[in-house]
């Protein structure tokens, strides 16, 4: 059982990298990928845990990118984390995420919400990628909402008056950099319409021309039409189809292994990668 998309507390998940790897083994997974947003800071800890519990670990990240004004999440697997160009883009995104989150908090505070930056910082692990879920957790802790989802629905959805964007590289540039770094770029949940505007099939075609190698087909945010569209594009463009949980610990309802990737797809990803080996 192979799950290629999960988050630890090094971004907006709630399990430590160790806890995540242990939970993955306990859930019966044989392979898990750690894909924290815009960072590799959980890789070393996850590796040690994977070697200890005996599960295969694919080290990766979910990169925040933008294509024609649309937010696009790009899974990047098995890349060299020291590649200067890719590192610089990931760092530029990280560097802008903190002031951006502070501006979101300021907008909420200006509107009367009793919320301070300290509240948000208290929800974040050392070295974690700052994101809207941490603001959501702080609002939940203050009693404004029952859970993260409610905050996203009412206050923090993209396009809300409190929403502030952050820097993100162009998707095609990120695709090229991931390839240059020996990694495998895979579009995450491309047709997850509940999150806002999504890209079109022609965008997937142009990103494939830029070097895209895979597409997430099975994901809980895809409705049946989205699954069909992604699967058809995978066939048309010879992209590696994947499936995954997008687990965030207790931050989302997604459960480890709820959707999975075929062994043949993992083989194709591993064969295409030269940046970092799979931990076995
Ligand atoms: P950011 O990257 O800071 O803009 O925050 C986006 C993150 O928020 C995504 O990676 C999701 O994990 C999370 N998210 C988006 N929508 C929801 C939701 N409805 N409930 C819980 N988490 C969400
Ligand atoms: Fe997330
Ligand atoms: Fe995502
Ligand atoms: Zn994700």
What can you see in these coordinates?
This protein has 280 residues and is an alpha/beta fold. It is 41% helix and 14% strand. It is built from 10 helices and 7 strands. The protein has helices spanning 17-26, 43-53, 84-110, 117-121, 132-141, 148-156, 171-180, 201-209, 224-237, 263-272; strands at 2-3, 31-34, 56-67, 70-77, 184-187, 214-218, 240-243. It has a 7-stranded mixed sheet. Strand 2 (31-34), helix 2 and strand 3 (56-67) form a beta-alpha-beta unit. Helix 1 (17-26) runs parallel beside helix 2 and helix 5 packs across helix 6 (148-156). The longest helix is centred in the middle third of the chain and has 27 residues, at 84-110. The mean pLDDT is 97. One fe (iii) ion binds next to loops. Residues 5, 7, 62, 188, 246 line the site of zinc ion.
Major β-sheet, in short? 7 strands, mixed
Strand content: 5-15%
The average pLDDT score comes to: 97
Question: How many individual helices?
Answer: 10
Structural class: alpha/beta
Strand tally? 7
Order of helices and strands: EHEHEEHHHHHEHEHEH
**Low-confidence regions:** none
The termini sit apart by: 15 Å
Associated small molecules: adenosine monophosphate, fe (iii) ion, zinc ion
Radius of gyration, in Å, reads 18 Å
- Cross-sheet strand order for the largest sheet: 1-2-3-4-5-6-7
Global shape: globular
